[in-house]
Amino acid sequence: MKQLDDIQLLEAIEKYLAGEMSASEVVQFETIRKQTPEIDQMVVEHDMFLHEMGYYANRKNFSKLSAETFHSLYNAGEWAPIDEQTTKFKVIQLWSKYKKVTAIAATVGGFIALFTSTLVMYFSPSLNGSQVLQLSKAIEVIKKNQQVQGHILNEVKTKLPENAKLLSGGSGFLIDTKGYIITNAHVLKGNGAIVINSLGQELNATIVYADKAVDLALLKIIDSDFNQPKSIPYSIRKKTTELGEEIYTLGYPRNDNDIVYGKGYLSAQSGFEGDSNAYQIQISANPGYSGAPIFNNNAEIIGIINTRQKQAEGVAFAIKSSKIFDLIEAAQKEQTGEKTVRIAKNMSASKSSDRKKQIGDMKNFIFNIRSYN
Fold it and tell me: Are residues 324 and 305 in the same domain?
């Protein structure tokens, strides 16, 4: 009976991925998928499997067609009685007769080599960049953001240094009332940064410490306009989060300074290719979400979004929040001036609050990050 159920489930997944379900069937299937992490994982893996099989089939068909074309052109020619001719004449005659075939063969060979190289880059586990996309904002998006806010770039009131060159951006969140912020290391492509709160207020910040291997970085607000809060309405979770737990995030993926809410659930307790430092999460994640915190229902940060899978819709990855403690420890060892960093522990009333109240309490502690040289 179980085997039959598995076959029926596989047929349903293929029907879902092929777009052959009715609207009501899609709603029902997506509800089941959301409530059952195992089924969701099967959908993701089967989608990737079909994608890879499609690449393989295209490669085989292309190779077969190339071979047939070559042999067709080759067999259409006629061999000359070459034993009665000089070596020089034989070479000239053969080149004249088969130069078209030779050119096509060379072109086909080049295409096959290029196609094979592309496949190697795509499937190679060591080249994660071909399968995983970092979620920092590109410079063009940041400039567009400034233009939207002020219509004309020169009219935007900014704390960026004169002639500063914007390089990248993302999201970040406060972990200490004294102005310490966590974001992804890849968000900070420059050597300077400003942070912007949900009210649009820009604040100068300095890059305290970055660990590119873990992809986390520590910033500190150094601005007289910063109003230091009395407490932070969330805490950082040290323990591993349970599979299937509902999660949500707040970040800045849009081309303006509006904070965006997204929700999903934890779909695997390891990240890309079994990375034990990260979680796999089912959530819609766009560029700009890098550095955004992942919360559970108890107003605890359980992770930091940094990448998403290119070939699987809605599959993203978040660095485990326990790595924040490791980052602070490393920063304190290297930077003696950062001994006073104290990670938020005060839950206040947010733990027992409903989702809307939690978001209202938290949004002023989530920042839009911009990095410059």
Answer: yes
Residue 238 lies in a domain: yes
Q: Are residues 226 and 279 in the same domain?
A: yes
CA distance 97 to 101: 9
Q: Identify the domain containing residue 113 by its residue range.
A: 47-123
- Contacts of residue 222, defined as CB under 8 A and 6 or more positions apart, other chains included, come to 179, 204, 205, 206
Residue at which a domain ends, from 123, 150, 166: 123
Sequence-separated contacts (24+) of 88-97 with Cβ below 8 Å: none
Q: Tell me: pLDDT of 278 over 50.
A: yes
How many Å apart are CA 177 and CA 341, to the nearest integer? 9
Residue 242 lies in a domain: yes
Within 10 angstroms of residue 5's Cβ, the number of other Cβ atoms is 9
Judge if 166 and 57 occupy the same domain: no
Q: From 373, 45, 21, select the one nearest 191 (Cα to Cα).
A: 373
- Judge if 252 and 287 occupy the same domain: yes
pLDDT tens digits, 75-130: 655 444 434 444 455 545 544 554 554 455 445 445 444 444 444 344 433 335 45
CB 302 within 8 A of CB 287: no
Q: What DSSP line would sit under 53-112, residue for residue?
A: HHHHHHHHHHHHHHHHHHHHHHHHS----GGGS-HHHHHHHHHHHHHHHHHHHHHHHHHH
Q: Would you tell me the crossing angle of helices 23-35 and 2-17 to the nearest 10 degrees?
A: 120
For the entire predicted model, the pTM comes to: 0.63
